[in-house]
Amino acid sequence: MLGRLFGTDGVRGVVNEQLTPELALRLGSAIASHFGEGVHVLLGRDARAGGDMILHAVAAGLLSSGARVHVVADGGFAPTPAVQYAVKELGYDLGVMVTASHNPPQYNGIKVIGPMGIEVDRETERQIEEIFFEQRLRRVPWSRAVHDTTVEPRVLDIYVEAVVDRVDKTLIRSRGFRVLVDCANNVSSLTTPRILRRLGVKAYTIACDLSPIPYREPEPTPSSLAEAARTVTALGLDLGVGHDGDGDRAIIVDEKGEAWWGDRTGALLSAYIAEEKLLDTPKRIYTAVSSSRLVEDYLKPRGIEVAWTPVGSVNISYRLLEEGGLAGFEDNGGFIYPPHLLARDGGMTLALFLEMLARRSVRASQLYGELPRYYAVKTKVPMPREKAVRVVEALRQEYSGKPGYRVLTIDGLRVDADDYWFLVRPSGTEPVLRVMVEARSPDRAKELAESLVEKARRLAAG
C-alpha cells in the first residue's frame, strides 16, 4: 500500500481491496502508539467478507502497543454511528470501526473515531500515518501485555434508545406508518428495524440479514435501490429507506417509488429542524460542494445560511463543532443532527424524517415536491490522480473570472451558472475524476455531462 493510508471521500480510513491482516495489525499498533498506552478502545465491524479476520488483527495490534480493547458484543457487529455514539456516551478514549462504508463489497477498511464520536481529524491521521510508514511502533513488554479483549454489551441498546428519545414517539406512532428498510445485508439490520418498532412503525425488510455477499452494491443510490422502490409501490407503503454498508447513510424512497438524493432530504430536514426543534440555534447548515444548488434555493428564503465545505462528512462535523449550526449533510445520504451526534447517522435521519412527515401530515412525495427541481448526472472518468488534478486546474483557469459564473475551489472545481452547475474533483479513494452535473431538465443535464466528460478526457490526454 503506497501513499496515504486515509481516504478523502468521506470514508476517512484505510480502504483497500487487499487490506491484509499484516497491514491491519500494524495499523492497530500505530493507532495505539499514537494515543498512548492504557487507552480504552471500542472496536466494531460491519459484515463484510474478512471482517472478523481484520478485526482480530487490529485488536492484536492495539493490544501489542498497550491499548485496552473492548469489542462490541456478538462478534463486533454494529453500525458505525452506534459505535460513534457509544464512544461518546460511554467515555471511551477512541473507537475503531472495521468497515469500507459504501464502497464495493470486495473492499474493507478501518475508521478511527475520536472521543467525541467524530472520526479523527486530518492532522491526527497524518501522525498515525507517519508512525505506520516509519514503523515507529511502540510495543509494551510482556509484563504489561496482560490485558485480554473484553466484550462491550451496551452499544446497540444505548444507540437505539438515543435515536428513539430524540423524536416524538407518540406523534409518529399515531400515524401508523408502514416503511420498507433495505439494509444491504449489513449492520443496519441490527438497529433500524428495532428503531422503527420502538416508534410504532410497521417495518418491511429487504436484505436485513448479515451476509458478506450483499444482494446489491453497498452504496444506496436510485439505481441500487430499484428493487426497494418497486416494493414500496407494490405494497402501498408510506416510504422506504436504503442504508449503506455501515449504516451512516440513508436514502429515502417516497411512496411513489422515487429515490431522493441526500441533499434533498437534508434541505427538508434542515428547514424542519429550524422551525420545530432547534429554535435558538444559529440558522446555519453545512453541506459539501457536491450538494445541489437547490439547497440554497430552498433554505435561503427561509433565513437559513448555507456554508459550503469540502466533500467528506468529517469536514462538516468539525465545522459544526467549531461554529455551531442546525445540521450538516451531503448528497450521498449522510445527515448530521448535532443534539444526537456530530456525525452522520442513517437511523437518526430516518427517525427525523418520520417525525417531519407526521407533524406536517403529508406524504413524502408532497414534501419533496416543495423543492426546486434539478436533474442530476453523476459519473466518473478513469484516470490517475495526477491527471485528474491537471484536468481540474485546466478547467479552473477556463472558468475563473468569467462573467456569469460562481466558482468554488475548496474541493476540486464547482461552477454555478444561471440554469446549471457542475463539479469536477479527483476522487480520494479511486483513480478517477468525479463529475457531477445538475440542470433544470434531464436532457440538458445529460448533454452537459457528456460534454464535460469528453473535455476531461481531452485535457487528460493532452
Structure overview:
By secondary structure, the protein is an alpha/beta fold. 38% of the residues lie in helices and 21% in strands. The protein is built from 15 helices and 20 strands. It has helices spanning 21-35, 51-64, 80-90, 122-134, 155-165, 169-175, 192-198, 226-235, 262-276, 294-299, 313-323, 346-360, 364-369, 385-399, 442-461, and strands at residues 13-16, 40-45, 68-72, 94-98, 108-113, 150-152, 178-182, 202-206, 239-243, 250-253, 259-260, 284-288, 305-309, 327-329, 335-336, 375-382, 406-408, 413-416, 420-426, 432-439. The strands form 4 sheets. Strands 1-5-4-2-3-6 form a 6-stranded mixed sheet, with helices on both faces. Strands 8-7-9-10-11 form a 5-stranded mixed sheet, sandwiched between helices. Helix 3 crosses helix 5. The longest helix is centred in the last third of the chain and has 20 residues, at 442-461. The radius of gyration is 22 Å and the shape is globular. It starts with 12 loop residues before the first strand and ends with a helix.
List keywords for this structure.
single chain, 462 residues, alpha/beta, six-stranded mixed sheet, five-stranded mixed sheet, 15 helices, globular
